[in-house]
Amino acid sequence: MLDVKAGDEQSFALLLHRYRSPLVNFLYRMVRNREQAEDLAQEVFLRVYRAREDYVPSAKFTTWLFRIATNLALNSVRDNRYQRMEISLDAPVTADAEEGDEKTLDVAEKHPNIERYLVEDVQRKMIRRAIEKLPEKQRAAVLLHKYQELDYGEISKILECSESALKSLLFRAYETLRVELAPLVAQRAKQ
Amino acid sequence: MSCGGMESKILGYVDGRLKEGERLEMEKHLSTCGVCQLRVNEFRSVHALLDELPMIEPSAAFDVRVRARVAAEPVKQSWWAWFAPSPRVVFAASMLLLGTVWIGSYSNPPQFDQDDIPVLENYDVISSFEPLTELSQAVPADDADQQSQDM
Q1: Which of A30, A43, B23, B133 has the most CB atoms less than 10 A away?
Q2: Is residue A99 part of a domain?
């Protein structure tokens, strides 16, 4: 990032290459819409570029990056919630609509072991829905902890809370997931 | 360690982020508490289940869009750059200066000769001037003609 600050365009391309996938995945899991996740990720990179001259390496770059991303995602989730409330409360919600932009696959052709694939698909949907049901801040904490593997200090800076508050937040999130995913948890315990 | 102290340590234990001393303390408690041991196993299962979500790849156009947005950003100038003369401003200022000098050298402003200006030398006479109130008697027209023939 210091090279980007010094005006090295090549370094910005390296940052883009290194962080685009983690960012898009984090944002996708936060907002559950691929296009929106990519738009938000673009906005994150643009803000990084705009702020390059004022960047002070007081914290890790990833902390700063995911702080921008988390704030954008939380705002977007809140905006979406209000939009959805405004659109219609009567609109029927289908299972496909809840899955967002998951593409339909010709399952039988691509997966010879169709039964196993369907079971795993159901499991994935359950996990996704369980994560979606978490309150936004808990969701962000779980995603940063589990998928970005950031340490507690970094996550607490991103979410602007103390480390003990973060540990409590994560504990409550995992408790909720444990309850939501109880059938899968029990199944796994038997194996 | 008591079961109440588990809340802040259980996740760190599950994902292996506890310090050595804390980990040993945790294991000591788990060896005597079946409830906490069950909870640890369940948290481990949740942790492993979360691994089953597949990653998505950013679309092929993602980098292109980011670069296009970055390229469209206005170039940031420092505050003192405002004072730096631009060629257009320098040219305009030079032309204005030249024009002013040229107009100044060829135009003739009205000249007044001091001798042409009447001077009121005796102010008292002017100031005491009064309009005529009595005029001499008008001469009748016939008398005037006779007087002219006599002459």
Answers
A1: A30
A2: no
Spell out the per-residue pLDDT of chain B, length 151, in tens.
778 778 888 989 998 888 999 999 999 999 999 999 999 999 999 999 999 888 899 998 999 999 998 888 776 666 666 666 677 878 888 999 999 998 888 766 666 666 666 665 666 666 666 666 666 666 666 665 665 565 5
* Total count of residues recorded for chain A: 191
Letter string b/e over residues A12-27, b meaning 16 or more CB atoms within 10 A of that residue's CB: beebbeebbebbbbbb
Domain count, chain A: 2
How far apart are alpha carbons A56 and A51 in whole angstroms? 10
Domain harbouring A141, CATH code: 1.10.10.10
Which residues are CB-neighbours of A189 under 8 A, at least 6 positions away? B41, B42, B45
A42 and A110 housed in the same domain: no
Question: Chain B partners of A167 at a C-beta cutoff of 8 Å?
Answer: 7-8, 11-12
- Does residue A89 lie in a domain region? yes
- Which segments of chain A does DSSP mark as H helices, in order? 2-5, 9-31, 34-50, 61-87, 95-98, 107-110, 114-133, 136-146, 152-158, 163-180, 182-190
Rounded distance between C-alpha atoms, residue A174 and residue A185, angstroms = 12
Token digits of residue A12:
């910005």
The pTM of the full predicted model, rounded to 2 decimals, is 0.68
Could you tell me the sign of the dihedral formed by the alpha carbons of A53, A56, A61, A65, in that order?
Answer: negative
Q: How far is B20 from chain A (nearest CA, A)?
A: 16
Same domain assignment for residues A84 and A145: no
Whether A100 is in a domain gets the answer no
Domain ranges of chain B: 3-50
Token pair belonging to B72: 């469209």
- Min CA distance, A90 vs chain B (Å)? 31
CB contact under 8 A, B48 and A28: no
ipTM > 0.90 for the complex: no
Closest CA to B11 of B2, B21, B1, B23: B23
